[in-house]
């Protein structure tokens, strides 16, 4: 267990919120006829301090997501020296940040263009360790492809099945990547039908990808603090929770 030195109230508050999220996720799974073991909880820690992150780790969270490479690079190396957690990039990856991303993250969950794949592949190979070179092992990284299921122009993500298949085929040709599945962000609206449509669209694409031979797919990342109960009903395997774990910031 991580030894945490800091505000005991912060630890207690975050632990309580983590437990509450786990209970709600479990309830949503049971109401959908699913096992709670089918859904992982990712704590999205963008803009959160190292103390908050360590409190979540103390509460048993072992999967985290960050949106900005530079921010993650400033706080995570020190945290990871004292803990075993998985860190994923859930925000858009700029090509000029590919070097840092290759060194820092276990998974880039927001791939949406072949040029990004090219840049990440080059940097991933550059970042391969001496140990990997000695064992002749290829550097490798898990990736998810982000799909813009709501087709909103302000969002990142692949639009349309044809573009998705083209990108998946290109990634599959590169042995340094492990294609794990798909990710989407539902529209930020109150209309439940629109939110469900986004999730169902991704689920259909996920199933079609399996039919096309992408049998290694095991991750359907969709749902955040305000809509993860709907995402679970539609088949999500990873829900990305920020506010419900860390609370809203007081600005």
Describe the model.
- It contains ten helices and eight strands.
- The two termini are 33 Å apart.
- It has 251 residues and is α/β, with parallel strands linked by helices.
- It is 45% helix and 15% strand.
- Strands 7-6-5-4-3-2-1-8 form an eight-stranded parallel β-sheet.
- The protein has one domain: TIM Barrel.
- Helix 2 links the parallel strand 1 and strand 2.
- The N terminus is likely disordered.
Keywords:
45% helix; alpha/beta; 8-stranded parallel sheet; globular; 251 residues; disordered N terminus; TIM Barrel
Quick description:
This protein is an alpha/beta fold. The chain has 10 helices and 8 strands. α3 links the parallel β2 (63-66) and β3.
């Amino acid at each position: 267990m991580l030894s945490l030195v800091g505000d005991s109230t912060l630890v207690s508050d975050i632990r309580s919120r983590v437990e509450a999220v786990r209970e709600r996720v479990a309830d949503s799974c049971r109401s959908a006829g699913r096992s709670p073991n089918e859904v992982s909880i990712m704590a999205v820690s963008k803009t959160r301090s190292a103390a908050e992150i360590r409190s979540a780790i103390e509460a048993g969270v072992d999967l985290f997501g960050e949106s900005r490479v530079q921010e993650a690079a400033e706080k995570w190396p020190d945290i990871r020296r004292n803990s075993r957690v998985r860190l994923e990039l859930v925000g858009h990856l700029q090509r000029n940040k590919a070097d840092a991303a290759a060194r820092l993250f276990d998974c880039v969950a927001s791939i949406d263009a072949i040029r990004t794949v090219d840049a990440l592949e080059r940097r991933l190979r550059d970042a391969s360790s001496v140990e990997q070179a000695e064992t002749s092992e290829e550097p490798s990284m898990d990736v998810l492809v982000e799909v813009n299921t709501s087709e909103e122009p302000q969002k990142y993500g692949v639009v349309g099945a044809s573009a998705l298949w083209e990108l998946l085929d290109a990634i599959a040709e590169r042995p340094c990547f492990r294609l794990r599945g798909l990710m989407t962000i539902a529209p930020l609206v109150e209309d439940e039908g629109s939110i469900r449509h986004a999730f169902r669209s991704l689920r259909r694409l996920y199933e079609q990808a399996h039919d096309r031979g992408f049998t290694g797919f095991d991750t359907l990342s969709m749902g955040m603090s305000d809509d993860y109960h709907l995402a679970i009903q539609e088949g999500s395997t990873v829900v990305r929770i920020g506010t419900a774990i860390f609370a809203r910031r007081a600005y």
